[in-house]
Amino acid sequence: MDVAVAALPLAVVAVLLIGFLWPATRAMPIAWIAALAVGYVWWNNPPDYLVGSSFVGVMTALEILWIVFGALVLLYTLMQAGAFDRINRGFTAVSDDRRVQIVLIAFFLATFIEGAAGFGTPAAVVAPLMLALGFPALAAVIAALIGHVMAVTYGAVGTPIIVGIQEPLMIYEDQIVNEGGMSVVQYSYEVAAWAATYHALTGFVMPLFAVAMVVYFFGPSDERTIKPALSVWPLCLFAGIAFAIPYWISAWFLTAEFPALIGAMVGGAITVSVLRQGYLLPDDEWDFPPREEWADHWVGAIEPGDDGADGAVPNGGEQMSLLKAWSPYIVLIVLLVVTRVVDPISAVINDADLGTEFAIAGVGEFTIGVVIEWSEMFGYDLSAAIGWMNAPGFWLLLSAIIAIGIFGMSGQQVKAAWSEAIQKLVSPFIALVFVIAMVQVMIQSGGAPGAPEAGSMIEILAIATADVTGPLYPALAALIGALAAAMVGSNTVSNITFGGFQFTAAHELGLPSQIVVGTQAVGGAIGNLVAIHNIVAALATVGLVGQEGRVMRLNLIPLFYYALVVGVWALLFVYVMPDVLPSVFDVY
């Protein structure tokens, strides 16, 4: 009964989102109410404790939204300035071959946008760009969703790791410190590094996967074949490896903010340079069948081939250089590296003592400064903090402000960029606040006075799952993360929901938890392939709303490939590799 009741809030999410196809803005408040009811009736949580747990979730959601807002402002600033169109044209000028364009745009450009903005942005931005180039709308959406999957674990400058793994695992801080001799921050970065290892070993074939899906399902109707994809396999694998190597290195030796950004920028630059030298270009040029032969469901309200953008700087008309177009993101990476690597700066922007402290009787203790913190909520051991200056959101906004001067933008353009970003936040705000409040009620439920000794709702579910699956659990861990991401449409929320779940299950089975939680970070990424929210957003940008089911069915192919291969690697890392390479695995 404990397990069945603990699963009730998640069951409500599944039924409303998948069964009834409700939007998250309607489903999540009801799921939160279900969690409150379970916490009060079954877990004996006092009402004010439940309110405090919910506020922990609200503050976490606000930190995510702060990052997303900064990411969207920077993205729309580049769009208003014409810089983003210049970046896109830099890719498309390399070749007219559709297979090459898939590699450069649906893979490199989409992974870069995911690393910079996250939260469903890549498919919603890249799909209309590909439509403008003449791709069928459905093919553009599928290619963009498949192409960006490796970057999702590090979307919005590392948010799924920093907010999704690091902050929820603070509840296990004593256990992590005592058993591993590391802080929760260090632990989360090791999780990110293991996730990059899974991705690098599994996802380097994603460019080939995206090309194969497009040429097979959108080639001539009388001859379905992947032969056109196989003829460009050297390019696809070169591109995947060129991305994966700097991506993996940055995950292990920098921090979780950078893998997707560095992988896309370095790998993309190398691949474009090689192609411009005439290497790896296909001998023949592949294109879609004539427009009159296309199936009706390939195209919606927007006709392919309508681009209309000139790629020029609005204030003057001169053609913008690629370096200038990329410069705001270069500034962003420099700012993030400096604020993470230079200890005096990092210490200042993380110093919770730099602020005003006060207390409100019966409510809690507050700090307002470079860190906004609320502790001892309603007299309980509940706390939450927003490091608004340390969070990437601040540096994203600063980069956007610097970009205004770089591009010489008008006040009207700046207003348009910021207005668009604010409008895009309305729906995610409602969904995120309630879903993360629900998750925090489930996570914190075991810490209330009078709560069952068995632990929180999440711990009960994790232990039960570990008992049922036994030694095979690592093979299934990525699918658990994928299921959550498919339901809620976010890798970050999937990690918040199941990061502690995976941690507890790993300890229950005596397995190295960094390696297991790393599969969660990967699973949350691949779940975006079939996340209804991302699919709807992408289809809307190409005028093809109503084809959600078709996209989900097709994208189950790469999802199951990814989950299966990651599961095999997880079993090898957990049970085989420690004996083969003991010095590498000793710390785990």
TrEMBL record:
Topology relative to the lipid bilayer, per the entry, is:
Multi-pass membrane protein
Sorted alphabetically, which keywords does the UniProt record give?
A: Cell membrane, Membrane, Transmembrane, Transmembrane helix, Transport
Asked if the Swiss-Prot or TrEMBL record annotates the protein with the keyword Membrane, the reply is yes
Entry GO CC:
plasma membrane
Return the InterPro entries for the record: Lactate_perm
| Pfam families membership | Lactate_perm
Establish whether keyword Cell membrane is in the entry.
yes
GO MF terms listed in the record are: lactate transmembrane transporter activity; solute:proton symporter activity
User: In which domain of life is the source organism classified?
Assistant: Archaea
Membrane-traversing stretches: 6-22, 27-43, 55-79, 100-119, 125-145, 191-218, 230-249, 325-342, 354-372, 392-409, 421-443, 559-578
Cellular compartments annotated: Cell membrane
| Name recorded for this polypeptide | L-lactate permease
Q: Which organism is it from?
A: Natronococcus jeotgali DSM 18795
